[in-house]
Input
Amino acid sequence: NLGIGQATTPNALNVTGNSSFVGVTTLTDASTHALNVHADTNYRGILVNGNNAPVIAFATGTNTTPKWKVGLSGSNQNDLAIGKGDGNTNQFRLLDAGGAHLVGTLSAEHLGIDGHLYHNGDTDTRLQFSTDTINLQTGGSTRIAVTNTGASVTGNLDVSGVLTYDDVTNIDSVGVVTAREGVIIPDNKALS
Output
């Protein structure tokens, strides 16, 4: 054993300045944190660098195979990635060019977006949001619009089940309704 400074923690070894740990190093402290980095300068702390995809990995118990890791992506070293296990197993990437990529399903209690939702292969078919309005667009044109006062359909409306007429006071004179099973009109209602 080599004692520097006081013989007991926390001052058994206190290194100030530039320090490096080279090779396999295990830091163990059962009472607090094994490694505590204090940095008073903005954007300084721990730097992990390397030639491929350097990461900070997390494992359970004394395992040396990581459960999760955070670092540069093996697919693109300009992207930040969160992955599982060893190797290039990106589950989530923050893209250097902007945006993000998620493998799997996103579950969220609430999700806010500023623009619209679309399929990557067909960006002009989308669900678009604005104040008190939801538009379903195909080919870049709104086909169904839902507002805080009602809804409208552009184009023909084909119904494969039963279309029920209830409390409707007006049907547009140029509207077209196609129904395979018929239209049910309650008593005292009329189409005009």
Remarks:
- The CA atoms of residues 67 and 175 lie 59 Å apart.
- The two ends are 98 Å apart (CA to CA).
- The mean pLDDT is 79.
